[in-house]
Amino acid sequence: MSPSEIHVERHPAARLPRQIGIVHLGLGAFHRAHQAVYLQQCLERTGDETWGVCSANIRANRTLVEQLRAGGLRYHVAEYRDSEHLNLRQIGVIREALYAGPDGPDREALLARMSDPDVRIVTLTVTEKGYFLNPASGELLTQAEPIVHDIANPTTPHTAPGLLVAALARRRAAGTPPFTVLCCDNMPANGQRTRRAVVALARRQDSALAAWIEANVAFPSSMVDRIVPAMTDADRTRLADLGVDDPAAVVCEAFRQWVIEERFPQGRPDWAGDGVEMVTDVTPFETMKLRLLNGAHSLLAYLGALAGIETVDVAVARPALCGLLRHYWQREAAPTLDLPAGSDAAAYTERLLARFGNDSLRHRLQQIAMDGSQKLPQRWLAGALENRQKGRSQAATALGVAGWIRYTVGTDLSGQPHAVDDPLAETFATLHRRHGDDPAALIDAFLALDALFPTALRDDRPFAQQLLDALRRLQNDGVESAIAALIPTASDRDA
Ligand code: NAI
Ligand code: CS2
Question: Start and end of every Mannitol dehydrogenase N-terminal domain (predicted)?
Answer without folding.
Answer: 21-272
